[in-house]
Amino acid sequence: MKRKYLPHWLILLLLVFLYMPILVLIIYSFNEGRTGAKWTGFTLRWYMELFRDRNILRAMGYTILIAFIASTFSTIAGTITAWGIRHMKRRSSGLLLSINDLPLLNPDLVTAISLMSLYIFLKMTFGFMTLLLAHIMFSIPYVIITVLPVLRRLSRHQMEAALDLGARPVEALFKIILPQLKQSIISGWLIAFTMSIDDFVISFFTTGSGVSNISIAVFSMARRGINPKINALSSLMFATVIVLLLIINKNRKSRKEDLAIEENILLH
Amino acid sequence: MKSRFNRYAWPYALWATVIIVLPLIVIVVFSFRKNGTFTLEGYRMFFTPLYLKVLLKSLELALKATLICLILGYPIALLISREDGKSKNTLMLLLMLPMWINFLLKTYAWRPILGNTGLLNSLLELSGLEKIQFLYTEGAVLLGMVYNFIPFMILPILSVLDKMDHKLIEAARDLGADNRTVFLKVVLPLSLPGIISGISLVFMPSVSTFIIPIILGGGQDMMIGNLIERQFLKVGNWNFGSSISVILMLVILSTMILLSLFDREKREES
After folding, report:
1. Helix ranges restricted to H, B82-136
2. Residues B181-240: pLDDT tens digits?
């Protein structure tokens, strides 16, 4: 069975390739030596320094704050919009969806530059608001393309039927429509949240004095040369991602639905 | 199929026009304007050997990255698709996990491996070999692209292979096709939509990246993304920067049109 044996090595090799740098970072984050690959002893020093670094802590705070506001706002706005698009005429919904696709299809860099140009054109002051607007801008499309397909599977007349049977609109919405959308709304929020946390390029061009997220902080640290604090930070963020995924996974009915949504975005 | 609920999409239509469409118009306008007058200077400047070389280099690197991802990614997708349900899901999860990790941190993670006193060179030293300059080379940039973008090649191919009707393969076998023929005449053509979206998902971010060349290439090998960033943030030539951005958009747009044409042609053939 030599033939069957060999290909599995290929998968293993890929996994080694994907995880090696992350593993190396984690190991180095406990290394006493400041530079190089030599192991000079175990230390927690870099973690301590990380938690004493004001800039990083502030950047972390901004990252989470922006991600939280942007994804929550985007989820609400995106869900409402998806509801509207569902009831639009074909041609106008097609047009709006094409515009909605632009931030997903255009390279980050072009989106970032053009948004920065718009802000300058409108003479806006760069800072928290411009950064937040940018994050909302690129988050809503993800929510829409996550919620809309599920909404399209629902019957168009459910709402009308509920209203005819005497439900108040709010009741119909909360008892009939939203429960069926729940899963996709949660997924939309999660995708928006991770996109926001992960973003560097758009944030880099749309933020201003004193307001930075973790990516921007890492970028400026890395520019100044080797800094073991980055290793500590990466390890912590990696651990957070794994814990989050485990929690999400545990709360989900099926992994398949997640994969399907992820796929929907990839193949869009 | 109009109903009164369509009004819920109007606020977003307005928002999207202002924050998605208008910025692109602003960029196009900037690319033709300098000091308040109409000019083609930005475009004329770009089409000189110095900057054309940057464009060609970006295209070359992005093409190489895409090709490597395809050559490595396709067999891996094929292998994973043949796993049974449970290990398939685990493998997909393992493949996606790095996608959830900050892009910058992941790229940065290669530096302690590739550096002059890094892991690879320490291993070379230990085995009595000469040190090699890995970091700040074109190879490092290419590696960074493949590393970051290979899941985007594997996943779409995998999902197409996954949905493929296995009866078609059985039918081909029943009709006497050998493994090679089954692959070339059935599996490969049917997986083409996945390959095409994989290609665009890898090519696009590769051609426009400016971060990987800075972190792993030391900013020496300039790519079109670096050129744009520099024009906007360092040189302050907005007209030129906008012109290059418009050109980059056109490059990507034409690639996508080309790919979709190819896709349609193939579909009509079969």
Report:
1. 85-96, 103-108, 111-114, 119-126
2. 888 888 888 899 999 999 999 999 999 998 999 989 886 778 999 999 999 999 999 999
Does any domain span residue A115? Answer: yes
Q: Report the 10 Å Cβ neighbour count for B68.
A: 18
- CATH assignment of the domain containing A140: 1.10.3720.10
Nearest CA-CA distance, residue B171 and chain A, Å:
23
Lowest mean pLDDT among A129-133, B11-15, B133-137, B149-153: B133-137
Q: What is the pTM of this model?
A: 0.88
pLDDT of residue A111: 95
Q: Does residue A31 fall inside a structural domain?
A: no
The reported pLDDT for the residue numbered A52 is 92
- Show residues of chain B in contact with A99, CB under 8 Å: 13, 16-17, 20-21
Interface of A with B in 16-35 (CB under 8 A): 17-22, 24-25, 28, 35
Do the chains contact at B113 and A133, CB–CB below 8 Å? no
- Cβ-contact A77, A140 below 8 angstroms: yes
Fold of the domain spanning B38-269: MetI-like fold (1.10.3720)
B150 burial (CB, 10 Å; 0-12 / 13-18 / 19+) is buried
Report CB contact under 8 Å: A87, B241.
no
Parent domain of A132: 54-228
User: In one letter, which amino acid is B192?
Assistant: L
Whether B252 sits inside 8 A of A21 (CB atoms) is: no
Please report the ipTM that was assigned to this predicted complex.
Answer: 0.88
The number of domains in chain A is 1
Note whether residue A245 is domain-resident. no
The series of mean pLDDT values per 10 residues for chain A, 268 residues long, is: 61 93 89 75 90 92 96 96 91 93 90 94 95 97 93 83 84 86 90 90 93 91 78 87 75 57 56
Whether residue A169 lies inside any domain: the answer is yes
Task: For residue B34, report the phi and psi dihedrals to the nearest 5 degrees.
Answer: -140, 130
Give chain B positions within 8 Å (CB) of A206: none
Residue B245 has pLDDT above 90, yes or no: yes
Sequence spans of domains, chain B: 38-269
Kindly tell me the number of DSSP H helices and DSSP E strands found in chain B: 16, 2
Q: In 3-state terms, what secondary structure has residue B38?
A: strand
What is the pLDDT of chain B when averaged over all its residues?
A: 89
**Across the interface, do A266 and B12 touch by the CB < 8 Å criterion?**
no
